[in-house]
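Researcher: For the annotation table, I need structure tokens for LLM class flavin-dependent oxidoreductase. Please keep the output clean. Sequence:
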Amino acid sequence: MSIDIYWRIGMEGDHASLRTPRRYNRGNAGGYGPGNIAPAIRGGELDGYSYIDHAAAVAKASESAGFLGGLLPSFPVTEDPWAIASALARETTTYRFMVAFQPGFLHPVQAARMSASLQRATGGRLVYNIISGGGGPAQLWWGDKVAHDDRYARTSEFLDVLRGVWDGAPLDHDGRFFRTEGAALPPGLAGQPFPEVYFSGSSGAAVNAAGRHADYYLSWLEPYADLRAKFDGVRAHAEKLGRTPKFAVRIDIVARHTEEAAWAEIEKGWAFVDRDAANRAAQGDSVGAARIAGWVPETITGYRDLEVQPNVWCGFSLIRGGPAFGLVGSYEQVAERLDELVDLGVDAFILAGNPHLEEAYRVGEEVLPLLGRTTPAHRSAALATHTV
């Protein structure tokens, strides 16, 4: 059995470690202040090393470290992942680019043309991370006031139209959100491999849409029993439609030679806890974010209070933006927790660590080779490879 493993590319910039979680000194997300290294101000002038150079370094590092590809997130604070994927494709060879985007802000015919063009140019290295938006201020930044369940209905119709025009047959469509008349891709673009679809969302509306469209149902990490229940719900709905989805999990990792060293990193980052910032980031109607909030206790006496099961820690969002849950432990422990997720039914991972560049090497060299070797003998045979 093989597992697809992606790495996250920090599109919003990056910081040196969890010990400096709110100081973005890699990339220009925080401007060109003193201490930035990508780009940097040297002698009063920019050094000519742009943030795209830094993103390319992360992509090349993770490709060489054994990752199948990279997730390119999309938020109001990031650059556009479609444009970045086009730039980074020339810097890599087989590396896949998982472009995150919200279908509401593109017409499906234009998205089909963009996607087919990128597939043709890269030899089929585009992957979709379909997100329908979490509501709140972040959604309003896009000018989107569509209600929660309607956003998933819009996403579903978007993917129906996109697939409808993909192979070149003219499509007439008069739907709730989109209309087309004779829409088709030109012969040179028609017939490209359709991108794999990673579909996110925890609500009933999301699960319904995922059942129809997802190749991989993508979730943030949660306590394993809750994750299993979520997967069971998606699987049951998809089976009614005659489909069999795969499952993927997005996970932050702090892995070191020893468990003590890994928790020491968390302890250093704990000085930067900002619950108010985490609460602001969670504003909106995202069911997934609400689920996460329910696992973080109101009273916290120390960082180990947030270890909900061995090596599974739900305090990351209190230190920096993003998912709450991640894995903390020795290389062997983190690999074992990943293997347990594979046993649970996970087919793909999107891993991340700060800084993205150095941690891509660390996780690729120290954790990935252990996968499939930590499981007890009665489990299935060791994973043959990291990627397909």
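Researcher: And a one-line annotation?
Model: The domain at 4-370 is CATH 3.20.20.30 (TIM Barrel).
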